[in-house]
Request: fold
Amino acid sequence: MNYYPKSSLVRSDFRQSPALPGCVSAKGWLRALLTAAAMACTIMFALAANTTTALAAATGAPGVPNLSPNNYNGANSVVITMNMWWGNNGTSWQLFQNGTLVYSASLVDNSPNAQTATSAVISNLALGTYTFTAKLTNSFGTTAGNALSYTVTQGGGTTTAFTVTASAGANGSISPSGTITVNQGASQSFAITPNSGFNVSSVTVDGVNVGTPTSYTFSNVQANHTISAAFQPQSSGGGPFGGSPAAIPGTVQAENYDTGGQGVAYNVTAVNGTDNAYRSDGVDLEITADTGGGVSLGWTAAGQWFKYTVNVATAGTYAVSFRVAAPTAVTGAFHLANSSGANLSGSVSVPSTGAWQTWTTVTANVTLPAGQQVLTLDQDNAGWNLNYMSFATGGTTNPTVPATPTGLAATANSSSQITVTWNTSSGATSYDLQVDGALKTGVSSPYVDSGLGASSVHTFAVRADNSAGDSAFSSLVSATTQSSGGGGGGGGSLPAHLITGYYQDFNNGAAVLRLTSVPMSYNLIAVAFATSTGTPGQVSFSVDSGLSSALGGYSQAQFIADIATCEARGQHVILSVGGANGTISVNSSASASAFASSVNSIMATWGFQGVDIDLENGISPTFMAQALRQLKSGSIITLAPQTIDVQNSNSDYLALALSIKDILTICNCQYYNSGTMLGANGQVYAEGTEDFLTALAVIQLQAGLAPSQVGLGLPASPSGAGSGYVSPSVVVRALQCLATGANSGTYVPPAKYPTIRGAMTWSINWDASNGYQFANTVSASFGSL
Reply:
């Protein structure tokens, strides 16, 4: 978000003291003199503002806007007046209340004369002090003014509030406790602390058990909530998670290993994990994107092990279905052992599923005695995740032929590529794919068929294989390659709908990834960020040393090879310039040429296919347009403005987007870290809602951008932004509302935009930490647009 300096204007409140009859007090004379002076200034300003002589258009950025209120009596409603005393005029202005946009309007350029404007009535203000700032904008840039401090002392408005009721059982505490009042949209955190000798046994939120975390945060509170915690004695020798052994037959969740800690319940070489808060002694856990959600076990390594206390109802042979995921195949991944160390399952291999959160099932058979016992999952080789183990009676030593895969789908990525996907079949060890009648063996989902002709039709069928034989082929599906890039400017052939994800070239606590680990659901990857050099406008790029260290080494050659791999399988990789700390300035023809020259050089060296502009400290639409038009022909060009930068066609980013409409791929506005903003209908909408997304997106559509050039930018998880996170399902509803008119909120768009391009998220890494919920949910909705 843009930062505006906040300083208070000091105002003396002259009050006339009682005077002797026939006399005027000193304060009264002073007030009279000031009043007369103010009236004179007002008359002079009005004369200046209404000068009718021939005027020249602005030749530079606007003058400084100054603010004043219509009263100083502390009322809970106020009108703010903006005055720019002389110089270059603005063509639009925006008014902010405590950093949140509350009013904007277009202006007439009467340069170099004075300029004035007044806001709508700002009412229902609660008691307290408010800071107002303004931005005045024209084609040369934006100028921010000084702050105005306004204090409400009477008739304050009300703030919607909700309650969170927190309680704890014996042998522990929750803080804060009792009934807590939380303002709408705010967050409230709780610390859950067991007494000495006890562990957290369960935390229940709104009636749902959320595991055994030691802290919990309600974000963007929009309703009343409850949270309660229970505790249990620690067991120095370890024991079943939750106090009771897992039942067999039944499912044993990977995250529910025994209690007791390192060397007792598990053995790990290092403590990893992104969702260890699920249980107070959690290690190597993360949120899963598998069907049913929950938590999975990762960060596997040879020599590690986890113990599970189970209760077997009947002695016999059980078929065990292991729910696993692996970016690449792992031979001899693990085995299941009893308390004596005997290998019960034999060595179990994990096939490639293509990503850490793309799941399949492998099976093995174990023979178990009846009664309570401890099973150990021994990790023999690294590179796989486990969600659960499901034990069923009737296990056999010989596998059965797998079922025919379901869910076969083919999607055209471009004029030369089609991606084919299908659901995994239980017990399958590999898959064969018929491609236009030719057999491709040993393939996995997703499969990319490339080198195809534009507007050509292709057919596909799939079968599953294991040592027992092959399943029947599925029914044929077909897909037609695109005839063009789907609209929206440069970038060659792109899918009709895009999920743009930012790849973090740094380590900030989110999951660290190689580019090749980015799932195929992200068809446009923006690598963040290029950095400035000593030359105005010039940028450079390198692999961050912290990222390389976290990945155990990531060289420039490896990064370049990974870009090529992503692009070969149908993903497009571009370079993002800017970010919240970006200091790159393109404000002259020379700096525009330096920017274009350096970006073209980086694209040639690294293999990037285009550039993303994410400068958050102001841009010059004129000179940035010059720079982008000097890029290599056909480059992908994306913009990532803040909401304030696309409020109307004169806002800097929207003005830029409209001026490069012929080469612009997509404008992904950041609908977060924003607060309330004006929608296309002039109404104010709060971030974190469907209406906020749709009402603000329509501003760009009505200004003249094609629907295929408009995307919705949201954080992938609450950790990805300071505010504005919404469930991915809300993003889907907003896209469906814009595309088809279905699932609209209180705001109903004036038209349907079936070619709306898609969504963007900050970031792929935070999405990975959140089980890829954003990418999986949003990409699955594209078929309904």
Residues 713 and 760 are 4 Å apart (CA to CA).
